[in-house]
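lol ok so funny story. i was supposed to be doing the assay writeup but got distracted and ended up predicting the structure for this chain instead. priorities right. anyway since i did it might as well share w the group, maybe its usefull for someone
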Amino acid sequence: MMLVRSTKFRTRTAFASSRLRSFPAPMRCADSYATVKHNLFHHSSPRVQSLLVKAAPVTAFRSGSFFSTMPASTVKCHPLDPLTASEIKSTASAVKKTLNNDNIRFVAISLKEPKKVDLLAYDNNQSTNESLERRAEVVVLNPSTGIASELTVCLDNDADAVVEFLTELPSGVQPMLTPDDCDLAEAIAKASPEVQAAVLERYGITDVEAQLVCDPWSVHLASPKDERLTFHPTTSKPQRLVQTFLYQRMHGSFEDKEDNHYAHPIDITPVVDLNSQTCLCIDGMDRPPPKIPTASVNYHRNLFHTNSYLETVWRTDTLRQLDVVQPDGPSFEVTGNEVEWQGWTFRVGFNYREGLVLHNLKYRNRKVVHRASLVEMAVPYGDPHPPFQRKCAFDVGDYGLGYCANSLELGCDCLGHIHYFDATLSDAAGEPVEKKKVICMHEEDAGLLWKHVEYRNSHNESRRARELIISSIATVVNYEYLFYWRLKQDGTIDFEIKLSGELSTNLLSAEEEKTGKSTHGTIVAPGVNAQIHQHMFCARLDMAVDGDINTVSEVDVVAAGDHNNPYGNAFGPVETALVTESGASRTHDATKARAWKISNAEGKTNPASDKPVAYKLIPFSKGGSHPTLLTSPESAVSKKGAFANYHLFVTPHSDTERFPAGEYTPQGNGSNGLPDWMAANRSIESKDVVLWHSFGVTHMPRVEDFPVMPCESTGFMLKPDGFFAGNPAIDLPPDNNKASRLAHSPSEKSCCDTTK
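and the output, tada:
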């Protein structure tokens, strides 16, 4: 990235500038936990938890879900612990003092994670009681100039926070749109005299506050006309653009925002500038006003009965209650943000951009993954009718999964015996904002893990599977994204994304209106169109399979040729090492059962196979297989979203290579992202490697997806492949769930009764 101005501040004491130092007390990083006691939860059983091979039983009773508080004094500081409220306040104060400007807007205040080499050294020397110096990374915007800046702030125990680095970003670079920015965009549109006059004249809307809804979307620069909006035509000042798709509320309480406004789309689109707080233009005004659909198509419990053609009464064959209860408490142990469960240890992280992050995943003290998170998402819409050529969101970089995270509800979003993690983020003023219960952790029964019956005497051996699920849910304007990391007792890591929420709807174009048919979508309600689109996710997997030096290979299962195949029945795996970045841009091929193996390159081999211990990445383990990005290679989407043109990329680790579409995606072109990093075509054989796995859903909307969408799933799996000497779950002892009952018969002895 070209830097306009970079300043390093050196006014630090010698002690404060040292890289390693001791924290005077463990409560230093736990001050927010002390004031908000329910930040950490564990079960209320008096027993001391420990890591058990045999999990605590899960039984079904007619009882509720549970959580309780963990004393704050048990929390010990760790270099990866998120910033506390007091650290955020100190950081904001230091930034305002340095910039001498109280009118700046804070885009983000977040922990600056230590360099990987320092983290590895820290993990190897924790007994020294030394800790890494804590720093915050800050992004601010000056609305008067339109210029954004990056700052690094050192947080010192014995002094005020100190700004170490300040970098002004090039003119026109736009950082993330925060929740405050989205609220501001809607307020600007509603306050605009031009917008007010347009909706009054065209649709008779008199009360814009109550009746008008303005969904804020980043502006994807799909054409030269779009690019001209990025700077003021006379002053050349950068303009911070948001396009607002409009809808009308027609039913229920306007104050409580009950009506499903996506059933009433409006055809004009205001574009606002957050810096000047003005409406720049209104697209669609050249078209005669079409009729706005008026049917009530609602899912809200208060408006369900008003539906025009869908169900209006609750079904009477309601399900009987099914509750998950663990009478002895859950089987996991939580210390601060560190978790132990069934041989797994890992650390939970959370930030404004990626949301949920998992650090340092180990199984029985053997490393598997150093860091795992979802780092980007491209959501292009396939409708070329203006203004939808620029309807494309990069939800992670544009809005931030952490900023959009839900506060999860016990017994609704999370069922069972739950442990929640809270998060503290920041607002536009630099004030801390506490988000309760943004991460849910619990156990679930997952059916049978393994089973065999000796048919000669009918002897049965089977074990049920238990999974530990770490989850978070983000609402990005209309869509819900439900993220589930599942750790399994056989060493498997599973990542699933469920998609729900509402379709972003629109009216048919003037051309389509002539036929009444949608050419690039589906009519999901009378007069309501939902456009075809894709959700292309990218997971960043910093692998460490039994060590930090790994090699990646592609494994295809193919039919053998005629040689040594006299009966034509031979087929088997063909493994190809990926040795350079250019050769590691790969696409999934379901016809070859394609998977990618990550092998240890430090000489650690499996005693049975004599091959390097390994894990394999199995794509599309949830839902169906889907294509890569379907936009044309010349389009702005394909250039900015180059990470979605293949299903896999592999790069050598770099602390600065974090986000594949670049650090700043709004109004961006993808520069300083994955294609730029890979231009050098670096070696990736026997290196500290990072896998960038792209996957997703091509969504051709169904009528059944409206008014609210049943969950659609996608995901991948990391599965041990020669990592263990055998089935690692062979040591699970026999068990029999005593609470299970026959539905319509007297109880009888189970086939796996341990009393036999």
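The CA atoms of residues 212 and 248 lie 5 Å apart. The chain is about 10% helix and 35% strand.
back to the writeup now i swear
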